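Supplementary notes for students who missed Thursday's class. We covered one full example, reproduced here. Read the sequence, then the structure, then the short commentary at the end.
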Amino acid sequence: MKDTVRLLFALFVVVVFTGCYKQIPKEAVIPVEVRVVDLDVPLPSKDEADVVVITHIKKVSYLFSPRTAETPYTFILSINGKEIKDTLKGVEDVESKIDAERGEGIHYALKKRLRLKPGKYEIILKSEDGKSAKIKTELKGGKLHGLRFEPVYGPPKFGRPKHFREGVVYYDIYLDE
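Structure (token representation):
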């Protein structure tokens, strides 16, 4: 009797988990069509929406550091699961308008204009350092949206103010319409 109850319970568990496994959300099935367009193209039609994604990061380039301006840095944009990978070369930078980025280092800047259908999107920025930032937003047709991911660098150490050499802790996100 106990064996029969155990067998029926095991079958019940398998049936329940099989049913859960097959229920895939509708959003996961619909592929997202994303096109990268030039920054200076005219505004999209009412059937499309544009978003300009901007971010940057400054990395350390000490005397013994392997990082130079030729060392690439990779950002990955994920729009509803579809990834766009961009590997950039840096620019040697000494002066910066941002206090936390003052000093010698390599500056990497990403600026991409994406064209999508109007609707709700989850946009994720991932950096090669493993940091990421996510925003859920609705893009309206016929408009150009601006999306900035501003790096916030590590905590002050030993009385020093926040500085890029401490690395990115997170990104502040700003969405403009």
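Commentary. The first helix runs from residue 2 to 22. The beta strands are 35-37, 49-60, 73-79, 82-88, 91-93, 105-116, 119-127, 132-139, 144-153, 168-176. If anything here is unclear, bring it to office hours.
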